[in-house]
Amino acid sequence: MLRYRNILRLSQRRNYSSGATSGSPGGDKSGEDDLHPIRRTLRLLGNDMRKVKEFFVPKEKESEDDRIATQGKFQFAGERTRDPTAPDDFQTHCDVLIIGGGGVGSSIAYWLKEKARDGLNVMVVEKDDTYAHSATRVSVGGLCQQFSLPENIQMSLFAADFLRGAKEHFGQEVPLQFTPHGHLMLANDEHAESLMRSSQLQNELGARNEVLTADRLAARFPWLNVSGVALGCLGLEKEGWFNPLALLSNLRRSASGYGAHFLSGQVVGFEFKSQTDISVVGDAGANEGNYTGLEKAVIQLPDGTRRSCKFALCVIAAGASSGKVARLAKIGVGPGMLQVPLPIDERKRFMYALNSQAQSAPGMAMPMTIDPSGIFIRRDGLGGNYICGMDSYEEGNLHSFDQHIRSKLAERIPALGEAQVLDSWTGSYDQNVYDENGILGAHPYYHNLYLATGFSGHGVQQSLAVGRAISELIMDGQFRTIDLSRLSFDRLIVDQPMYELNNVLS
Ligand SMILES: Cc1cc2nc3c(=O)[nH]c(=O)nc-3n(C[C@H](O)[C@H](O)[C@H](O)COP(=O)(O)OP(=O)(O)OC[C@H]3O[C@@H](n4cnc5c(N)ncnc54)[C@H](O)[C@@H]3O)c2cc1C
Asked: Is 250 in the pocket of ligand 1 (CB under 6 A)?
């Protein structure tokens, strides 16, 4: 097993040198193709240097008129439509190619374009514009801070802040239907101590929740059977649920309004380029001095034709398919560092809409309740409706509620023992089978590849922070807001899992 000290060696390995890109970003480019992706990226870095200068030499104060002009960004009517099969409409070059336009991919596009505007040409390739099988669409939109890792807590805190000010970000937004409601995470004796510790950390970081004993839980929630429950952690603010498809629509519409191009198509391969001027230090297996990089993505368009698009940077945000897309880039099947796969797999989950008219059924004050058995349930509007699912339960089918869930649910909430199943649906988690947490940041071998995937059961609420984080890495070369470096791919190479003790829905 590799140990932590190897992280240092890893960071040394990421010292790439490229003669091809060593020219001055601000150099003379007359007569050259201005769309060249590498030069555009360098020009951006030049912008960064200008920003540093502006920091030290303050500009004149922004006039009221300027401010209003900036706010005018919201006046776009909707997405720009493009016909990818029209001869001149397919982009053969882009600065950043994002594979997957679900919550995570659209958020990355949104944050990149919100910051860079015309300075960066961003293209998102999405294979299914109906999002019928995207996790984002079928998610229950739960938002809570009851995690054990500071990174997860901070990302969800940011989501709560962002959602509160959604109009500011999205202008005329598609209503997000945010329903503020605490989550109630129940723990048995075995997990009580870790629940207490996590709650303390969450509160230190800005969440607000309280730990209740079984007696207090019983007094507060008369519908709850507390046998086997030692403690429960109840969110007091910044928690609830929202409409994930509405968030996706807003992100996609806003990114598109800022000029991101959304292309209907499926990435089916990559084209590689041998670059002897780049060396990956320290990766003996990858043939030092003979670096083969990613140059183009091969995209299958809806009419079956295949075109390729050259990119300066590429981000894999393909949800549950990310492991497969990574394999197209030889991740997990190549030599040296490329032997390490991206451990993202599909994990089927089933959700049920229930109704109960029982007198003692939980009322409006019911929090999203997460039972140690893995069952989670919340109210769904008025009229005795609920949404329920069960963690780590994938072998069933849509009709197996009675077989797998009913008796456990009845044990915890007896009044729902006879609840009627109104509807059911299924979706797949983008499950990180290594440690059930997101993998984000630069790939340690490919100098122009980023990953943003594997958020397992909490990716919708994290999509906002993840998009912002990837935009920081691309534009600033480092995390500026939340330090998410512990969630990088490097942890797979040095075998340092980042387990989340309180995975709410995974
Ligand atoms: C039943 C269920 C309930 C959930 N509940 C919650 C919850 O309450 N709270 C929470 O925070 N999270 C929840 N999640 C998790 C959350 O939905 C996911 O983690 C999150 O949506 C992942 O977003 P994504 O953009 O990475 O993936 P997706 O939304 O799946 O998007 C990935 C996109 O990539 C596209 N794609 C794939 N391969 C290619 C390719 N080769 N070329 C082009 N496009 C491609 C796909 O079509 C897809 O649209 C839930 C998930 C499920 C299944």
From this structure: no
What is the 291 CA–ligand 1 centroid distance (Å)?
Answer: 32
pLDDT tens digits along 363-387: 999 999 999 998 999 999 889 999 9
> Would you tell me how many other CB atoms lie within 10 Å of the CB of residue 346?
18
Indicate whether residue 235 lines ligand 1 (CB < 6 A). no
Are 184 and 362 spatial neighbours (Cβ–Cβ below 8 Å)? no
| Helix extents (H) in 398-440 | 401-404, 406-412
In this prediction, residue 180 carries a pLDDT of 94
Domain ranges of the chain: 1-9+36-59+84-177+241-343+433-506, 178-240+348-429
Closest residue to atom 6 of ligand 1, CA basis: 139
CATH class of 1-9+36-59+84-177+241-343+433-506: alpha beta
* CATH fit for domain 178-240+348-429, picks 3.30.420.40, 3.40.50.970, 3.40.1190.10, 3.30.9.10: 3.30.9.10
Tokens of 484: 């998410």
Q: How far apart are CA 291 and CA 463, in angstroms?
A: 32
Q: Confirm or reject: Cβ of 362 under 6 Å from ligand 1.
A: no
pTM given for the model = 0.85
